[in-house]
């Protein structure tokens, strides 16, 4: 059995960038295919939902109150898509998670297209299902705790004055919430390496993830907190950048509507509004800014997924003894110069 190595806080926080520096092509390739996956799914969602939104916009422009039967009919038409979108979203998430963890935990990238749905993804499906069951159990415990705390507060209120009961009840509620947060963080950190460990070992590992953070719980918690701050900061920067890039794409649309209002009188027909909207969005300037904004959004998504999964990957690899620094090769000693006659090949002196 491998011996866990010493925990390196800097390596844990920067493990994604470490992998990026060691295998830049593989990291960018996985990120590119994840981006293409999200774009494809997003396009399918827009194309599928467009008839529904087209009907809603047409009703809004016609100033007619929609009938309840019409709304239910449109929702019924979408029900099949909603079911397909639910399972498709699960499939997409598993494929993306599997591609990242193969690279980060096992240092592997599937040939040609890194997105797969195979044994790794099935193991991740099982691990994530156990996470959901664990979350459900935690919810039940929380609900029971809320009832117990409520009964305690009610008992305190019945036994004392209103002021004292209010203070005591507030303290009890505060302690309960604090204990709930602490317990949730503890369990989450102890099981956090389960997905990466399952991919690394090629076996489903859930409860085996518990000892991975033994002795380093506080370091692991601090690592996830710092990683959360990094992801939040990146979201603030790249999210703002994406919004600023999307904003100019609206100007050609506004120009189309302004020009139409100056040359035409009366209210817009629904089809005319759709034509103006499409004309503005397909303007070259709008397309450029939409592409740039989408690229910034995908950069954020790629960084979020890769960086967040990298912490669990580092924990799993460290636990298996795979994160040791390469040994420094010692230089070979320089041979001592031979002594004796220059013409004697054996180097021995004549007697």
Summary keywords:
mainly alpha, 0% strand, 351 residues, 11 helices, disordered C terminus
Walk me through the topology.
Layout: H1 9-13, H2 15-22, H3 24-61, H4 68-106, H5 119-159, H6 162-191, H7 194-201, H8 217-246, H9 250-263, H10 270-281, H11 284-319
Helix pairs in contact: 2-3, 3-4, 3-11, 4-5, 4-7, 4-11, 5-6, 5-7, 7-11, 8-11, 9-10
Span from first to last CA? 61 Å
In which range does the helix fraction lie? over 70%
| Estimated structural class | mainly alpha
Instruction: List low-pLDDT spans.
Output: 325-330, 342-351
- What is the overall number of helices? 11
Based on the structure, what is the oligomeric state of the protein chains?
single chain
Task: Give average pLDDT, whole number.
Answer: 79
N-to-C series of helices and strands: HHHHHHHHHHH
Radius of gyration: 31 Å
Largest sheet: none
3D shape? globular
